[in-house]
């Protein structure tokens, strides 16, 4: 049998038995050429059918549209105002309150002891530098708490306050000066930045070894790869996991819904949960059935930045709720003219959940404690007191 004839015979056999396709590599070169010639008409016919069905996706389409992930407020007619604080709540049969203040206090106590030991050993203490751009009230509040946290544990703090209309280069220059300062072991740029600034450029300017907020692309990339260890993990994500683990809540195999997918909280939290072998659903502003998905979850972590978004009807009985939201609400009775409330309607959720974090006093204090711990770890690495940061 000639090469072309053998090729045709093999082609026919392959069509009848697709698993025989690898046998083509057993044919001599001449027969393989014949096979290509025999298969060409069928291939062209199939190519024509495929071309009529679809076109090659552009790179923009593959990466998805660049649309702001903004949560639309519900229509006024559909919006439900939160009930008055404590109204109708039977606290004898409500959820366990996960006390973030207590957890954070224990962590700070340990950090303060290690800072004293470091000062005795090398004559230096860790240093944390904060870059604050603009005059957002919530950002100013967060920075105050972080500086106060440093003072409580003996960490040196430095603050660069920049006007909201400054240029990106001014912010990058400020970061660069802290990069070069050997007494600074952690640098964070308080987010969000003004809209005219390129957040990625500014965060990437932070030295990897001082990126205690964990937003450097290499830290985020290593967090996404289970075989790798990032130098630092974003502090709010660490705080969520710390509260769950400290509360003895099982993560492996559990269904966890994370509401919000920001790089500050939602994304790193979902990656960290997957490293703990949880089954993770992500809810974002374009999810069509958020309430239904959330109601199936054993654990709900909300970081959408929308006050009272998650109602009691979103939760299944006995779910664990971690509320990362810290939304400023006007309050003339407060010293600062506003108060913070969470993403979860606490008065409703407390009747359904088995455990819940309050706002304030839940995730916030532990997030700051995680920041202080990361700064300490960075200083240990710099002074040769540790070979790698703490295990996840």
Please tell me the CATH architecture of the domain at 227-367 by its name: 3-Layer(aba) Sandwich
What is the straight-line distance between the termini? 66 Å
Helix content: 40-55%
Question: How many E strands?
Answer: 11
Can you tell me the CATH topology of the domain at 227-367?
Rossmann fold
Provide the low-confidence segments as ranges: 14-30, 85-92
CATH homologous superfamily name of the domain at 227-367?
A: NAD(P)-binding Rossmann-like Domain
Shape: globular
- Please, how many helices? 13
Rounded radius of gyration (Å) = 28 Å
Kindly estimate the percentage of residues that lie in beta strands according to DSSP.
Answer: 5-15%
Question: Which structural class do the helices and strands define?
Answer: alpha/beta
Q: What about the largest sheet?
A: 6 strands, parallel
Keywords: Hydrolase, Multifunctional enzyme, NADP, One-carbon metabolism, Oxidoreductase, Photorespiration
Pathway: One-carbon metabolism; tetrahydrofolate interconversion
Subunit structure: Homodimer.
Region (Disordered): 36-91
Give an account of the 3D structure.
This protein has helices spanning 3-16, 29-53, 59-63, 100-122, 137-153, 168-180, 199-204, 217-224, 235-246, 266-275, 290-295, 346-349, 363-382; strands spanning 96-97, 127-133, 156-162, 186-189, 255-259, 279-283, 299-302, 320-323, 327-330, 338-341, 355-356. The protein is an alpha/beta fold. It has a domain at 227-367: Rossmann fold, CATH 3.40.50.720. Strands 1-11-8-7-5-6 form a 6-stranded parallel sheet. A 3-stranded parallel sheet has the order 3-2-4, with helices on both faces. It has a two-stranded antiparallel ribbon with strand order 9-10. α1 crosses α2 and α9 (235-246) crosses α10. The chain is globular, with a radius of gyration of 28 Å. The termini are far apart.
């Amino acid at each position: 049998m000639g090469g072309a004839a053998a090729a045709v015979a093999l082609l026919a056999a392959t069509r009848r038995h697709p698993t025989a396709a690898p046998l083509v590599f057993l044919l001599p070169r001449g027969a393989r050429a014949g096979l290509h010639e025999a298969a060409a008409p069928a291939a062209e016919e199939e190519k024509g059918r495929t071309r009529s069905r679809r076109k090659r996706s552009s790179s923009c389409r593959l990466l998805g549209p660049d649309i702001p992930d903004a949560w639309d407020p519900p229509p006024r007619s559909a919006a439900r105002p939160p009930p008055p604080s404590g109204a109708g709540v039977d606290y004898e049969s409500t959820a366990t309150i996960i006390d973030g203040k207590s957890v954070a206090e224990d962590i700070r106590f340990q950090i303060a002891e290690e800072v004293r030991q470091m000062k005795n050993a090398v004559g230096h203490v860790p240093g944390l530098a904060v870059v604050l751009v603009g005059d957002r009230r919530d950002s100013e509040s967060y920075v105050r708490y972080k500086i106060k946290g440093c003072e409580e544990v003996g960490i040196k703090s430095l603050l660069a306050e920049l006007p909201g209309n400054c240029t990106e280069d001014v912010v990058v220059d400020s970061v660069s000066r802290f990069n070069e300062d050997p007494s600074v072991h952690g640098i964070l740029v308080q987010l969000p930045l003004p809209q005219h600034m390129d957040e990625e450029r500014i965060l990437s300017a932070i030295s990897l070894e001082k990126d205690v907020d964990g937003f450097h692309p290499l830290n985020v990339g290593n967090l996404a790869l289970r075989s790798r260890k990032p130098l630092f993990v974003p502090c709010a994500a660490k705080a969520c996991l710390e509260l769950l683990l400290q509360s003895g809540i099982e993560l492996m195999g559990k269904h966890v819904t994370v509401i919000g997918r920001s790089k500050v909280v939602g994304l790193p939290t979902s990656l960290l949960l997957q490293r703990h072998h949880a089954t993770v659903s992500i809810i974002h502003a374009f999810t069509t059935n958020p309430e239904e998905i959330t109601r199936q979850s054993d654990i709900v972590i909300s970081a959408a930045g929308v006050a009272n978004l998650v109602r009691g009807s979103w939760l299944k009985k006995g779910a664990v709720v971690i509320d990362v939201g810290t939304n400023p609400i006007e309050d003339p009775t407060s010293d600062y003219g506003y108060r913070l409330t969470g993403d979860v309607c606490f008065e409703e959720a407390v009747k359904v959940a088995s455990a819940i974090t309050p706002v304030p006093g839940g995730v916030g204090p532990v997030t700051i404690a995680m920041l202080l711990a990361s700064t300490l770890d960075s200083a240990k690495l710099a002074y040769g007191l540790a070979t790698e940061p703490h295990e996840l």
